[in-house]
Amino acid sequence: MDLDRLAEQGYVIVPKFLAPEQCHELYQYATQLAPQDWQQAGIGRADQYTTNSAVRQDKIRWLQREVPYENAYLRMMDQLRVEINRYLFMGLFDYECHLAHYPPGAFYRKHLDAFKGRSNRILTTVFYLNPEWTEADGGQLVIYGDRGEVLETVLPEAGKLVVFLSDVFVHEVLAGQRDRYSITGWYRLNASIGGIVDPTR
Ligand SMILES: O=C(O)CCC(=O)C(=O)O
Ligand SMILES: [Fe+2]
């Protein structure tokens, strides 16, 4: 992964972050989950959490260390965290992530993943699991610059990882024609102060 690029432009797109076999396993895992394994995605954290289908319509599943397939991904992202800290001195403290499933037609309107000075979400990672995704399938991630210009339009293709600063880049997920699977996560700083434990979600 090109950490210089991340440092320079605030985001990086890695077309083949994982080998095809690893992507395929995660894809199989995500697609065989039962409806009760998923929850309606919301906006906001902890006591500010609400669901709002006008803003986002995906279903999510927080990954847990107790589930082997899920732990494997978490451990890999832990390694990446150490690498980023070593190289960019970011002091990232931990990582949380969820699987996301966007059924056909589902979207996530323009948003930031964190607000300046208000959140401990520092870096967003999005990893895509979708084999043979084409332009016609839609479901692109659009990343905007600070004047509202389009910086990147990203196809959610299997193996691709996108990493960006959570409080800098407005982004959105366009509606697609197919079921769209991804793993979205956040590297966080430890914002616990005065013995008050900061909730992870
Ligand atoms: O799936 C994507 O491309 C982005 C998802 C996203 O923006 C989020 O979950 O906050
Ligand atoms: Fe987001």
Automatic annotation (TrEMBL):
Do you know which Pfam families this protein is assigned to?
Answer: 2OG-FeII_Oxy_3
Which cofactors go with this protein? L-ascorbate
* PROSITE patterns per UniProt: FE2OG_OXY (PS51471)
Superkingdom of source: Bacteria
The processes (GO biological process) annotated in the record are: cellular response to hypoxia
Q: What residues does the Fe2OG dioxygenase domain cover?
A: 88-189
Provide a Gene Ontology MF annotation, just one: ferrous iron binding
Keywords for the protein's UniProt record, in alphabetical order:
Dioxygenase, Iron, Metal-binding, Oxidoreductase, Vitamin C
Which protein are we looking at? Proline hydroxylase
The lineage, from the top, is: Bacteria, Pseudomonadati, Pseudomonadota, Gammaproteobacteria, Alteromonadales
